[in-house]
C-alpha cells in the first residue's frame, strides 16, 4: 500500500471521528442500560446506520487502552466475543513520540493494515465475517487516544472460504482519561459496518445495539482481569 495515500486516507478518517465525537446532534438512543448508551443516526457513508456507544470503565486509561489497541499482540481475541482473530497484515508507519505532555510514557503512533475475523452471530443468522482495514492510532493533547479505521484492500488478504467479506466504513474508538479520576476512563465507540451478504434489515438492526452493549460489558471485565 502506498504510504502517502494511506496516510492521507487515514487522516481523513481520524478527522471524521473527531467530527462524530463533537457533534451531538441527530443521535437517537436505541439501547441504554448499566451505564452504557447506544445511539444511532443515518450514515452518510452507506445505506445504513452510524452507531455510537458510550460508557465509563472503572480502570486507568492505560489498562483500558491495552485491551482496545488495534496493534500486534492485541488482547481483543481474549475478551471480545465478536473477534475470533486479529492480525496486522502490514505495518506502514510506527513513529515513537511523547504525545502527552503530562504523562511520562512513550507511546507509538501507528498506521497499519489489519484483518479481523468475527464469529457467527444472531443464532447463526449472521455467518462468520472478515474485515480488512486501514487503521490509524492517534493521540491528542487532552490525553485521549483514538483508533480510526476504514475498509481497504490488500493483496495478501483475498476473500477466504467460510467467511463473508464485510466492510467497515469510517469507524473508531476514543479512550479518554477523566481529569482528577485516574482510575476511571470514558470510552466512546463508533461503528458503521456493512455486513454484506443477504441479511434481513431487522436482523442487522437488532444485532448492533446488543453487540455494542456486550462490548462494554466485556471491556469492563477485561480491564480489571486481563490488563
From TrEMBL:
<keyword id="KW-0446">Lipid-binding</keyword>
<dbReference type="InterPro" id="IPR023393">
    <property type="entry name" value="START-like_dom_sf"/>
</dbReference>
<keyword id="KW-0813">Transport</keyword>
<dbReference type="InterPro" id="IPR002913">
    <property type="entry name" value="START_lipid-bd_dom"/>
</dbReference>
<protein>
    <submittedName>
        <fullName>StAR-related lipid transfer protein 5 isoform X1</fullName>
    </submittedName>
</protein>
<keyword id="KW-0445">Lipid transport</keyword>
<dbReference type="InterPro" id="IPR043556">
    <property type="entry name" value="StARD5/6"/>
</dbReference>
<feature type="domain" description="START">
    <location>
        <begin position="23"/>
        <end position="227"/>
    </location>
</feature>
<comment type="function">
    <text>May be involved in the intracellular transport of sterols or other lipids. May bind cholesterol or other sterols.</text>
</comment>
<dbReference type="Pfam" id="PF01852">
    <property type="entry name" value="START"/>
</dbReference>
